[in-house]
Design brief:
The chain is of the alpha+beta class. It folds into 3 domains: 3-281, Beta Polymerase, domain 2 (2-Layer Sandwich), CATH 3.30.460; 294-367 and 386-407, Phosphorylase Kinase, domain 1, CATH 3.30.200; 412-558, Transferase(Phosphotransferase), domain 1 (Orthogonal Bundle), CATH 1.10.510. Helix content is 48%, strand content 18%. A 5-stranded mixed sheet has the order 3-4-2-1-5, sandwiched between helices. Helix 3 (110-135) packs across helix 6 (178-198) and helix 18 (504-520) packs parallel to helix 21 (546-558). The radius of gyration is 31 Å and the shape is elongated.
């Protein structure tokens, strides 16, 4: 037998012998050493941590420091019931169960440990998915994950909350061990995910994991953020209390000052070596899956993703936008000019955003944070596209840069259609109102699909040469949402686009065309009726002249009634 293997077996034998002494007449359920191959650590001064699970152990939990085979060994003895509760529900904040997040070396009863490891990782996956739903309430429907996300997010969390475990984390991430350790750790997550797939909680296609709509809706319904934050705080508290003794044991063999320096160095190394979990979260675009951690500016996107000619100039022109930066990017591929739109989201704060917030109090709430609005833009765009609605194709997304790149849509802004209609003779105006009727019908179809646009101004719609109505600026859209707001904003904002001295009767033609289109496509009359209430008119009275507001609100209140017909 090779000397190293003989030494490993001797150390293992002495550890188990001491564990049996601790257990007395009670049964040892399982035992493991923390680390992928901790018995043959190159650092013989490093403390070897062993966890032994004992049936009906009294006291329930205790630490023992021993020197076995010239190694500092910390033996953590825990009652079987306590350990299994920590696995099931984080009874001790995962202070004990969390040791199975990283690779471990089985000393006794590997089948038992594997079963509990899968149970632990299944719970961690569910908790991490809850956090994703709460952090990305719209985007979570579109996010696709790799199993590595759960592994590295759990490792990163442990690095933040368990500083004394940095030596184990460094061993896990060390270049020579990384791929083997990752594969060992991932096997438990894959088994847990397979069980969750059979329960319909996740779907797995081509190696990508998707959270089920049912799970997402349930989490959003019970608003579990407080519970999740409590769990995190609970883990931190218990971890702090139960991680003191390993540091004490280290002082048996190392000078206190050297220990302090060594721990600081370990922390720095962990920060540098830990993978970014967001590298394993993806959203699907026209150019394939994009990781949420992707960082890409406008010119780099044109060169690397759009394959713009290396010798061609990339022109970036502002398209306007008060609350966001919107750019038209012009580039060449094979000498042929092409265009895309880049939209950079900014946090809404300060005076520019305050008036609309004030005016809409009690009527409508808005997504303000840049990340939240980008998330809605992408998620609802994808949802509408999947249901056959016309929206610009999303080409790329960079969450870190708050950028979304999308197809440039050729056509006429519906705001211009309205201006032209009210400035022409009556007979000609009627002929120019077909796009407005199509907008009404489009809104009815979108609402019947369970979606509200949130920012339905005429300027956010484009009529193409083929007669299609394309919806832009979906950053306030949502599943469910306020359908009445959509109707009210389009109708009243249409008055904002009309000349000061336009005839009221001419303006009414625009509103009637929209309402007819909405009702004709199956839209609910009560939705239009409610748009005439003061709750909505008060908001838009700031933008639209009073005589237009009065005419439009009367049309809305009478929509679908005999009086209007």
């Amino acid at each position: 037998m090779p000397p190293q293997k003989r030494a490993d077996e001797q150390l293992s034998t002495e550890i188990l012998s001491f564990c049996r002494h601790l257990a007395g007449s009670n049964k040892i359920v399982a035992a493991f050493a923390c680390g992928s191959n901790p018995l043959r650590s190159p650092n013989t001064k490093a403390t070897l941590e062993v966890l032994v699970v004992i049936h009906d152990f009294v006291p329930r939990f205790v630490n023992y420091a021993k020197i076995l085979c010239k190694r500092n060994v910390l033996i953590i003895a825990v009652d079987e019931w306590v350990f299994e509760r920590d696995v099931d529900r984080g009874f001790l904040g995962d202070a004990l169960a969390g040791r199975m997040i990283l690779p471990y070396f089985v000393l006794l009863n590997g089948d038992y440990l594997q079963r509990l490891e899968i149970k632990l990782k299944k719970r961690l996956i569910l908790e991490l998915m809850e956090n994703l739903v709460l952090d990305f309430p719209e985007l979570c429907y579109e996010i696709r994950m790799k199993p590595e996300y759960f592994m590295y997010e759990a490792v990163a969390t442990r690095a933040r909350m368990f500083p004394p475990a940095n030596d184990l984390l460094i061993d896990f991430m060390r270049e020579g061990n990384r791929s083997e350790n990752a594969e060992i750790t991932l096997s438990g997550y894959r088994s847990a995910l397979a069980e969750l797939e059979t329960r319909g909680i996740v779907g797995i296609v081509d190696g990508y994991i998707r959270i089920s709509d049912a799970f997402t809706d349930a989490v959003k319904g019970r608003k579990a953020r407080f519970v999740s934050l409590f769990k995190t705080g609970q883990r931190t508290l218990f971890a702090s209390l139960l991680s003191i003794l390993p540091q004490v044991v280290d002082t048996l063999s190392q000078n206190r000052e050297l220990l302090r320096v060594g721990k600081a160095r370990s922390t720095i190394q962990v920060d540098k070596m830990t993978e970014t979990p967001e590298d394993y979260l993806f959203v699907n675009t026209e150019n394939g899956f994009v990781p949420l951690a992707a960082r890409m500016g406008i010119e780099l996107f044109a060169r690397e993703v759009l394959k713009a000619d290396n010798d061609g100039k990339i022109r970036v022109d502002e398209l306007g936008g008060i609350l966001n930066d919107v750019f038209l990017v012009t580039y060449c591929v094979g000498g042929k000019e092409k265009k895309v739109v880049a939209k950079r989201f900014r946090d809404w704060s300060g005076f520019k955003w305050f008036p609309l917030t004030l005016w809409s109090i009690g009527t409508r709430t808005f997504a303000v944070l840049a990340r939240s609005r980008l998330e809605k833009e992408f998620a609802i765009n994808q949802l509408l596209s999947s249901k056959g609605f016309a929206v610009p194709k999303i080409l790329y997304i960079s969450m870190s840069e708050r950028l979304v790149f999308m197809e440039y849509v050729e056509g006429e802004n519906v705001s211009n259609v309205i201006k032209r209609a009210v400035s022409r003779p009556a007979a000609e105006a009627v002929q120019n109102l077909d796009p407005i009727r199509k907008v009404g019908a489009l809104f009815a179809d979108v609402h019947s699909a369970g979606i509200a646009l949130g920012d339905s101004k005429p300027e956010n719609l484009v009529a193409t040469k083929s007669g299609e109505i394309v919806m832009l600026d979906l950053e306030q859209a949502s599943r469910g949402g306020d359908k009445v707001w959509d109707v009210a904003e389009f109708v009243y904002y249409a008055g904002h686009d009309m000349p000061l001295f336009a005839e009221v009767q001419r303006a009414e033609l625009v509103a009637k065309a929209f309402i007819d289109g909405y009702l004709g496509a199956g839209g609910e009359a009560k939705v239009v009726n409610r748009a005439g209430n003061p709750k909505y008119t008060k908001v838009f009275s700031v933008f639209t002249l009073p005589h237009f507001m009065l005419a439009f609100s009367n049309l809305c209140r009478k929509a679908g009634t005999t009086e209007r017909r």
